[in-house]
């Protein structure tokens, strides 16, 4: 189902008139397909609406990956440009919002309606749902933090840390046990949004469950997700000059301790959620999946790190890790 949706959006991306926008749209799908595949797992919570859930998740994640590429690989360092681009993610979650020219503050403009169609696809799905008010406060909060992060981390290099630390000071009462770079990481995941929308599609949500899911996913499950993502990207980010939050721990041992802490806290917070086994699988899957990536081999000390994290996460993580490595090996042979 994910592949079918992605094929549609890739065909649309290939029709974008502007060369730069077309290039970034295609690259975001080709290189980040696994984001949609991973997010698509949440459609299992949507019951007989799983195809609708997949359509929403793929469209929303495609917006996220496309905008990330536009900010990461752009000549622009304008925070107002990044803010306007990410308004598309807020509009996608707000059915009453009109489309706007999200490219107004950059040179490349004509995407042939690509971003607008992605936004409208999400809006139409949410518009037809009963009880959207049960989750809107939580998903708008998660989206707002995500957009803030994308703006602050993509500006001029010398401004990034001051902006991120100031932002943390303004928000640290939400999660006082986190450092500024951990708070930034936990804000960078879309998993909580997919979980909430899928539960709503499945008709299994109310105000209490919505709050429980928010507190279950933010900060620890989302934080584990993004810290693992940054962990495997260390070498790549160093080569590209991109910000990587793993670099701000005291040493490798400190990073390992905190990742294990995130695993344990994730499992603790899962206990209050419906479908507990599903959310346990998500945590185990995150650890198994990310540590099976080929990029891990390029990281100094990764053998010891992988053993410690897989042990903390349990036998299911080890099984998932082994299976994905075996699958990848078969695919490449």
| Proportion in helices | over 70%
First and last CA, distance: 26 Å
Main sheet summary: none
Number of strands: 0
**DSSP helical segment count:** 16
Mean pLDDT: 95
- Overall geometric form: globular
Rounded radius of gyration (Å): 19 Å
Describe the protein in words.
Helix 7 runs antiparallel to helix 10 (191-201), helix 7 (133-153) packs parallel to helix 11 (207-232) and helix 11 runs antiparallel to helix 13. This protein is globular. The protein is 70% helix and 0% strand. It has helices spanning 2-13, 19-31, 33-39, 50-72, 79-92, 114-127, 133-153, 157-171, 180-186, 191-201, 207-232, 234-240, 252-270, 276-290, 302-313, 315-332. The longest helix is centred in the middle third of the chain and has 26 residues, at 207-232. The protein is mainly alpha-helical and 333 residues long. It contains 16 helices and no strands.
What descriptive keywords fit this protein?
0% strand; 16 helices; mainly alpha; globular
Outline the fold blueprint.
Elements: H1 2-13, H2 19-31, H3 33-39, H4 50-72, H5 79-92, H6 114-127, H7 133-153, H8 157-171, H9 180-186, H10 191-201, H11 207-232, H12 234-240, H13 252-270, H14 276-290, H15 302-313, H16 315-332
Helix pairs in contact: 1-2, 1-4, 2-4, 3-4, 4-5, 4-6, 4-10, 5-6, 5-7, 7-8, 7-10, 7-11, 8-9, 9-11, 10-11, 11-13, 11-14, 13-14, 13-15, 14-16
